[in-house]
Batch of 4 targets.
Target 1
Amino acid sequence: MTEEAPNVQKAGKIGFFDSGLGGLTILKVVAKELPQYDYVYYGDTANLPLGDKTEEEIYQLTKAGVEALFKKDCLLVVIACNTASAETLRRLQDGFLKDNYPDRRILGVVIPTVEALINSDSTSTLLIATKRTVESGKYALELQNRSPRKIKLYSVPTPELVPLIESGDRAEALSKAIVTIEEEKGSNQFDTVILGCTHYTKLKDGLRAHFNSSLKILSQDEIIPNKLVNYLERHPELESHFSQGSTRTIHLTLHRPDYDNALKELLGGVII
């Protein structure tokens, strides 16, 4: 997270965008680390998952979500979705943001995760992610551009995991993730697994229990909060314009009754 901070003139909120509920795990840990700020979450659940959409569809849906958050007074939006971060973040920053909202900022989750990998002692890593995230090659590109040392990166798409996690079938999702990782270990040697989708944070404990100390699991809910803290410390002119009412507001484009329990579990009660 290295973008220049805007010269904002009014109090505002911090926004989070994702296609479903995965990004709520990121909001939860960020709000725990920085409880004083006001947060708005926009989950485009009507178009879940983004991982099976075209690049243009992902761009248009992400742009619509980000703009909705800007209209809700968010000065900073975190795209808490790897697919959207990989496919559209730079295009949004270089075009849409400069042309329409030059006083706002958009951050993603891919670069902070790559930085965490570089700062680890990994020499060979497996990325599991959505089909679009893997096909984008964004992780490999950022790793190549940023790492001063050689880290091998293997990538495998796991498109079946998001629907399972969204439906509440974490046991089946965990089982499929374990099978995928074990199959990859049969042909490639790696010491670390990147959970390259914010939904997959729900699987980290089960994966760590299964693989014990044989694999290190990088989960984005353990990466993004400190990265955001560091970003705000580097940009006090931005931080000083955030409102501090400790509110958390959730907007979903399609609501289902089973989301209520997930929202309560993640945030302990919210405004929808």
Note: DSSP finds twelve helices and nine strands in the chain.
Target 2
Amino acid sequence: METFNVHILGCGSAKPSNGHLPSCQVVEVRGKLYMVDCGEGAQMQWSRVGLGMTRLGHIFISHSHGDHCFGLPGLISTMGLLGRTAELHVHAPADLRPFLDCVLATFCKDMGYRVLFHEVDTSQHALVFEDRSIEVWSLPLRHRVPCCGYLFREKPLLPHIRPEMFACYDIPLSQANNIKMGMDWTMPDGEVIPNARLTRPADAARSYAYCSDTLFTPSLSSWLAGVDLLYHEATFGEDYLLRAKQTGHSTARQAAEMAVLCHAKRLLVGHFSGRIKDETAHLREATDVFPETLLASEGKTFEL
């Protein structure tokens, strides 16, 4: 099966903490890397994880709060120092553009590559990017500033060839791609071997949803239906429910309720408040509602 991994570089919230760095993740799909949010320390964490920066082409920012974007200046500058020439694409709400423009004009004037900004409408669930491997959709969230999450959907995979059938019918391996695309095979005597006999069904396409800072929003569940891995912010526990509402955040229990609503296969919680001293209690709160819950942690990789 092709690679589809989520690497956690940071899963803390805005208040500095000895335990966590601000929000930053890297989604790895079929050899390509896509960054989601870019808090402080992103480039240092990147080097610790050992991912090559040359494979990073797109950064998706959820909103303009500093704990989600203050890592951009250093990361962009370092890429320039490393001799990057390929374009870098930043997808973000409109209010991030002045910040990015200032960074580029002040610190990154003579880089050997271009940084292109793509505005994301945070009020819409819409396709914001696609390539041969994935589609990325925006997810309207409710926070104190314009904010959106991102849904990564793998494009359908091709079926698997059956090597034993290729050998049986003496089919050249050079025809493998044609047969994966649906072609039948015609024998020298004119007999047609149907494609279904030569292939096995493709692996199911996978999906990953990143729900950054947001109030609990049940309406998201229809867009997240059946997601393989749901990352949902869980800044507070239920004992701080009022604080969560006041600041535009969710609790661990609410994150788990979202996973139930959308029939997610697994839930990953993060964006932990500096108030949290015992994350196992946070985990228990979520697993009481949704047993397949995991805690985000810097350096961890989650495979889909």
Note: Residues 97-107 form the longest helix (11 residues).
Target 3
Amino acid sequence: MTDLFRALKIEKVDDKQTINLVDISENDLMEGNVVVDVTHSSLNYKDGLAMTGSSPIVRTFPMIPGIDFSGVVRSSEDSNFSIGDRVVLNGFGLSESHFGGYSERARVSSNHLIKLPENISNKQAMAIGTAGYTAMLCVLGLEDSNIKPTDGDILVTGSSGGVGSVAISILSSLGYSVIASTGRLSETDYLKSLGAQSIIDRNELSEPSRPLGKERWVGAIDSVGSQTLVNVLAQTKYGGAVSACGLAQGMDLPATVLPFILRGVSLIGIDSVMAPISKRERAWGRLSKDLDMKKLSEMVVETSLDEIPKFANAIIEGQVRGRVVVNIS
């Protein structure tokens, strides 16, 4: 008898996209040399786009969504991974061109896997998820630009979301003073509990303004893009740096070169999808040391495989606070 397991499957017929929970077998999985029993996945903005079809994330159909997962190695053709190893995978085409994490089992390339640090559980790995791993890459970008806690405030946009929530927690643990920008001022207490020193309304940054504004912060982590990123750059202090990782407002950048050539501001592009393994291992190693796991647990909502599609529209509309962990097993 064929060993069946559950997975969410996106299908598209006549430009209409549907998503259903189905039973599949290992024979239905894509190529790879490691099979993982998936224990947890998470919900990221990109997952919302994929499940709703509101952006062409999925490149081939049918597709199992979920851009990340954690789990336990079930079988391996690579001597670097053994049965029982706890592993994590972020990006590398999951939910785009390769079946993703919203499945009880996954077959992937060992070149895309890393072993989890011992002090991070599978559930914590997906409480961090791609959003938290991206936040860590953003922090590393600021550090590599020599932005230190004593230099001044760090702005975090989209602060109530996954990237923003984890970024605030990491930055505050490292001693940075954080300004959180949010469209939901009702989340002020939540953001301050994560370590934000002050809160500003995102409307201060979302509309066209002067090419150069008052110098307000020495660094920033931006997951919004478009006009917001333009205004963030325009108000960054001399010699400051901005890590950019998202496009919630849009993918355009209607900016001038003035912040770069008059203030020496650096714009750091953060790619979490195809980042090399060495950079991933560095990020996860730092997460194991610098992320307050108690704060992490307070920003988590847990759900199941059959319930996760209900969150898709909510995260796109900015109605999801913190991190959503999908308990697959």
Note: The first strand starts at residue 5 and ends at 13.
Target 4
Amino acid sequence: MNLAATAATTRAVIADDERLMREQLRARLAEVWPELEIVAEAKNGLEAVELVDTHRPDIVFLDIRMPGLTGVDAARQIAQLPPKGGSEGEDDDTLPEIVFITAYDQYAVEAFEQGVADYVLKPAERDRLALTVQRIRQRLAARAGGGDAPGGANLQQLLHQLSARMNPGQAPQYLQWIQASVGQAIQMIPVEEVLFFISDEKYTRVQTAQVEALIRKPIKELVDEIDPRLFWQIHRSTLVNVTAIASVTRDFRGRQIVAVKGHPEKLEVSRSYTGLFKGM
């Protein structure tokens, strides 16, 4: 993502299945943020993911309810896009700012007020949109100045909350066991015993205090299948058990490093997730 975003270079993608709503939001944005460049418009969630992957904007305006792929599901996929021109293991993986567009105030959950993401009610009112723009510009300025980015794992928790509100009565079913390869054997590992998951191009390593195992499921799929209250994503390639975190320190580069209970390996926190450990 464009970390050197300024008022003149900030770029955005708008996604809404209603053409009139896209036009109205574009017009309102031109009033409150005339320097903002709208690089593309999407008519559905799938198109939004593709356009974000192509253009790598600083901001994505996503209608929460779209056919085919909801704005929440699109945000999940956008959050897991690999860095442009690189692999999932690279560190330059800053996420775009997410702004949800909704016709209902029912989605105004607490996480919005914590700065994980923002939301705009339809039709976009000038004053409320101006407040959103002010928040976004402050966050982008903090990033450009080397400040911490919003916590990506907090974004995952917000997306789980939004899914629950969109599908009331459907309690999420999180994985309780991991079926993994240990040498030539298959072993059933309780999820709560996993210290962390680390992915490479083909496999994900499952690490417990006693066992190192492999599965063929990438982090971007595990994120949606594991309780976000138990596992935090601290890098595109890493999920860590919150109860297994011993400490968080900074190395000589200023990067946050997670020490894990019961294991000598140190886990690096990438820019998109430094907001998880505020004050470090």
Note: The longest helix spans residues 126-144.
